[in-house]
DNA sequence: TTACATTATGAACATTTGTTCTTAAACAAC
DNA sequence: GTTGTTTAAGAACAAATGTTCATAATGTAA
C-alpha cells in the first residue's frame, strides 16, 4: 500500500469534517491542507480539484450508515417484531445523531442540501423514499396480521419517520451550540411509545363484559 | 420619503432572496447590486457591509410570519376549537411553504442554520420553543376539558409540530428542483386528521350496549 | 436658483482563493 | 545503488471578492 491511500483518506475526512462544520463554500483548500498537515498544493496530487472531493463524499453517502436504518433486512423478515422493531429503528436515528461519523454526515447533508442537486437526489431517494417505502411495507404487513389498525400505510410511514428526522435535526443543532441534548434525546423513545400505542389494535378486553 | 428607503429595501430583499437561494457565503455583493440595478459600491451607502445585511435580515425574522402560527392568539381563547384549531395551524405551515415571502425566509433559515449562532437562537426560541410551548398549553387545556386523552402535553406538542416542520422542509426541497409538491402537500391535512383521531377521546358509543 | 445632503459611479486596492508549475524529496522495483 | 514513479513544498498566478475613495449625479430645502 502506497502512502497515497493514507493521505487521500485524511484529506477526504478533513474535508468532510470542515464541509459539515462550515459548509463547502466557506471551507478553503488551505484549511483542508492544514488539517491534514500538508500544503494545499499537495492536495491536488490526490484530488483533481475541490469539487472532486465534494463529489466523492456524495458518492460514498449511499454506502454509509446514515441511511441504512433497516440494516439490510427485508420488511417481511422483521415486521412481526412489532413495537420492538419500531424501537430499534427509532434507536438507529438516535445513534446517528450521537455517533461522530454519522452525525458529521447528517450535518453535511443538511448544510449542502439546498446547494447541491446530487445531494438532494440522494436525500430524496436513499434517505427519504427508500426508508419510508420500506416502512410502508412494514406497516402494511402489520395490518394484514392485525397487529395495528388499518389505515394508509404510507401515511403511517411518514408520520413515524418525520418526528425521528426532526428530533435528529434538533440534536445536531443543539450540539452545534454545545447545548444539552438530553431532553431532545428522550423524544425518540417517547415518540415510539406514543406512536405504537396509537396505532396498535387494542385487545378487546373481554373481562369488561 | 427619500429615495434611500426604496433602494435599501430593494437591496435587503435581493440579498435575502440570494442568501436563501445559494447561501450567504456564496452570494456576492456584485450579484446583489446587479439584482437591484446598481453597482456594488453603492450598496455601502445603505449598509455598512455584507454582514450588516445578514444581521438585519435576522433581526427582522422575529417580526415575520414565519413563526406566528398562532396569529397572536392565546391558547385559552382558541383551544375549544379542537380539531379545527389544529387544522388551522397545519394550514399555516402549508401556507408558509407556498407563500413566496415566507418560503424564502424558511429556506434562508435552513440554509444558514449551522453557520450562524444568532439564527440558531432565533430558530430555537422563536420558531421552535415558543410554538411548541403554546401548543403544549393548548393540549393541556384540551385535556382538562376532556376533549383529548390525558398524556404529556409537551410530547403531544412535539409530535404534532415535528411532521409539520418535516413536510414543510419537503415542500421547500421539492421546489428547489421544480418537482411536484402535490403528494407532500396532502400530508399536512392527513397528519392532522390522523393525529386528532389518535388523541381525541372517543365517545363511549352507548348504542353498543 | 443656490446650497447642502444623499446616492450612484468607476476605478482601485488588498485579500482571499482555487489552481498550476517547477523542483526536490520519498518511495518502489529491479 | 539505479531508475522511474509518486508525493510534497514553495512560489506564483489569475480570478473573485469585500471594501474604500474621489467624483459626479441626483434629490431636497431655502
The main β sheet of chain A shows up as:
none
SSE class of chain A: mainly alpha
Number of helices, counting only DSSP H or I runs of 4 residues or more of chain A: 10
- Rg of chain A is 21 Å
Q: In the CATH hierarchy, what is the architecture of the largest domain in chain A at level 2?
A: Orthogonal Bundle
Question: How many domains would you count in the coordinates of chain A?
Answer: 2
Question: Which range does the strand content of chain A fall in?
Answer: under 5%
Query: SSE order of chain A in H/E notation?
Result: HHHHHHHHHH
Number of strands of chain A: 0
Poorly predicted spans of chain A: none
Mean pLDDT of chain A: 94
- Ends of chain A: how far apart? 75 Å
Helix share of residues of chain A? over 70%
Task: Name the pair of protein chains with the most residues at their interface, and give those residue counts.
Answer: A-B, 38 and 38 residues
Task: Give a structural overview.
2 copies of one chain form a homodimer. Chain A is mostly helical. Chain A folds into 2 domains: 3-55, Homeodomain-like (Arc Repressor Mutant, subunit A, Orthogonal Bundle); 64-205, Orthogonal Bundle (Tetracycline Repressor, domain 2), CATH 1.10.357. In chain A, 70% of the residues lie in helices and 0% in strands. Chain A contains 10 helices and no strands. In chain A, helix 1 packs across helix 4 (50-61). Chain A starts with a helix and ends in a 10-residue tail after the last helix. The model of chain A has no long low-confidence stretch (mean pLDDT 94). Chain A binds a DNA duplex (30 and 30 nucleotides) through residues 2-4, 7, 28-30, 38-42, 44-46, 49-50.
Amino acid at each position: 500500500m502506497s502512502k497515497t491511500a493514507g493521505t487521500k483518506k485524511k484529506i477526504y475526512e478533513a474535508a468532510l469534517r470542515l464541509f459539515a462544520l462550515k459548509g463547502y463554500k466557506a471551507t478553503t483548500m488551505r484549511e483542508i491542507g492544514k488539517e491534514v498537515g500538508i500544503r494545499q498544493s499537495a492536495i491536488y496530487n490526490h484530488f483533481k480539484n475541490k469539487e472532486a472531493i465534494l463529489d466523492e463524499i456524495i458518492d460514498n453517502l449511499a454506502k454509509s450508515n446514515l441511511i441504512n436504518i433497516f440494516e439490510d433486512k427485508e420488511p417481511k423478515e422483521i415486521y412481526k417484531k412489532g413495537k420492538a422493531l419500531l424501537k430499534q429503528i427509532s434507536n438507529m436515528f438516535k445513534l446517528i445523531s450521537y455517533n461522530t461519523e454519522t452525525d458529521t454526515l447528517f450535518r453535511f447533508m443538511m448544510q449542502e442540501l439546498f446547494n447541491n442537486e446530487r445531494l438532494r437526489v440522494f436525500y430524496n431517494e436513499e434517505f427519504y423514499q427508500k426508508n419510508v417505502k420500506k416502512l410502508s411495507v412494514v406497516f402494511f404487513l402489520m395490518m394484514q396480521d392485525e397487529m395495528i389498525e388499518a389505515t394508509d400505510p404510507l401515511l403511517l410511514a411518514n408520520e413515524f419517520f418525520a418526528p425521528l428526522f426532526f428530533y435528529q435535526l434538533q440534536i445536531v443543532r443543539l450540539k452545534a451550540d454545545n447545548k444539552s441534548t438530553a431532553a431532545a434525546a428522550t423524544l425518540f423513545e417517547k415518540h415510539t411509545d406514543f406512536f405504537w400505542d396509537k396505532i396498535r389494535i387494542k385487545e378487546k378486553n373481554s373481562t369488561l363484559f
